[in-house]
């Protein structure tokens, strides 16, 4: 903050900086409850690259209303989940209506590692084998998303970091029979009614929580429930509101839930957030990012080494070892890559990132808006 301006301000909460200095590529043109409009900043350091004169953000409608507006060409760009994208959007204007649903961070099955049976690595290995991720991607993601690698990497984008000794790119192949055998061998036997018993001899009955109204996650939770049922384990799906799910996951008040960690550009951050014991907390207290409560001295040591490794060449052997921990110890189970929903229309502008030209992530507006050019008439 510039001291010569703010040092004399008595109340910063009411002060308006009429001549504020900014470094962004756009400045505010107008704002009202229905629309937010910004215009190109002639003083931006790359002003010659910004061919977009104006951006208009309109008030979002309900899901289906916005989908209709998108299909009618009222948006040049949007980021929304849209069932049957080819028929509902592309087919309305095949020449101009395009989309690119790149893979984002993995969405994982989180298990509370402080509780039985999740504190048993053999149980977790069996569950990883028993998740039908191919069916899940169809039911929860309309076939738009891909199965996730157990390594915590987003593939193929991060394939340069993949430990070459790990088969199948780290995707754990679904095999319900093998998973059932693994559970039995680990001491979780079936009773006469086909119910899987815990080591205390009682039928296993678990709870899965997912936010109310998140239709794709609810479908995924039902898919997970069905996979557990195949193994003889009863799972109840509960759908409280999102703040409740988030609070319970952070404080460890859950059996199972979905979590989103990893897939970041920083390998240190990708592995430290969900796995470093410094990022967890006792049950009842809020963890920062390690919600599953994974605590392992070897993992912590590797993350400490990774923090000090300066080059990719120094980092890769450490990242390979962390991948092996994900494979061997299964702190949690990455299931599918979250879709980065990105629809765009080329009627007014071209140069959008795409599967054929992935020069930027769909949320990297700085690169996108310095790459767009007016469409030819």
UniProtKB/TrEMBL annotation:
**Residue span(s) of domain Solute-binding protein family:** 7-266
Name the record gives this protein: Solute-binding protein family 5 domain-containing protein
UniProt superkingdom: Bacteria
One Pfam assignment: SBP_bac_5
Q: Which InterPro entries match?
A: SBP_5, SBP_5_dom
């Amino acid at each position: 903050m510039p001291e010569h301006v703010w040092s004399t301000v008595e109340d910063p909460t009411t002060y308006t900086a009429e001549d504020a200095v900014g470094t962004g590529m756009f400045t505010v043109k107008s704002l009202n409850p229905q629309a937010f409009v910004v215009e190109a900043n002639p003083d931006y350091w790359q002003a010659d690259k910004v061919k977009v004169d104006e951006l208009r953000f309109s008030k979002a409608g309900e899901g289906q209303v916005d989908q209709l507006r998108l299909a009618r060409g009222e948006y040049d760009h949007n980021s929304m989940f849209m069932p049957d994208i080819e028929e509902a959007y592309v087919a309305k204007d095949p020449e101009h209506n395009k989309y690119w649903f790149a893979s984002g961070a993995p969405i994982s099955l989180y298990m509370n590692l402080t509780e039985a049976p999740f504190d048993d690595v053999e149980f977790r290995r069996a569950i990883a084998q028993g998740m039908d991720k191919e069916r899940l991607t169809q039911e929860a993601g309309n076939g738009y998303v891909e199965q996730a690698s157990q390594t915590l990497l987003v593939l193929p984008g991060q394939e340069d970091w993949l430990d070459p000794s790990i088969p199948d790119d780290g995707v754990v192949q679904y095999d319900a029979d093998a998973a059932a055998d693994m559970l039995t061998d680990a001491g979780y036997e079936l009773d006469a009614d086909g119910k899987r018993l815990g080591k205390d001899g009682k039928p296993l009955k678990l709870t899965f929580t997912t936010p109310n109204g998140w239709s794709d996650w609810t479908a995924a939770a039902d898919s997970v429930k069905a996979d557990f049922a195949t193994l003889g384990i009863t799972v109840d799906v509960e759908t409280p509101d999102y703040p409740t799910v988030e609070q319970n996951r952070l404080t460890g008040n859950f059996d199972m839930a979905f979590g989103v960690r990893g897939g970041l550009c920083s390998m240190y951050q990708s592995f430290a957030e969900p796995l470093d014991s410094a990022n967890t907390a006792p049950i009842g207290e809020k963890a920062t990012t390690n919600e599953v409560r994974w605590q392992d001295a070897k993992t912590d040591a590797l993350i400490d080494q990774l923090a000090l490794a300066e080059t990719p060449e120094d980092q890769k052997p450490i990242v390979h070892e962390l991948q092996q921990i994900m494979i061997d110890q299964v702190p949690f189970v990455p299931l599918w890559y979250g879709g980065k929903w990105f629809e765009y229309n080329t009627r007014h502008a071209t140069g959008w990132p795409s599967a054929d030209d992935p020069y930027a992530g769909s949320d990297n507006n700085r690169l996108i808006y310095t790459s767009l050019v007016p469409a030819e008439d």
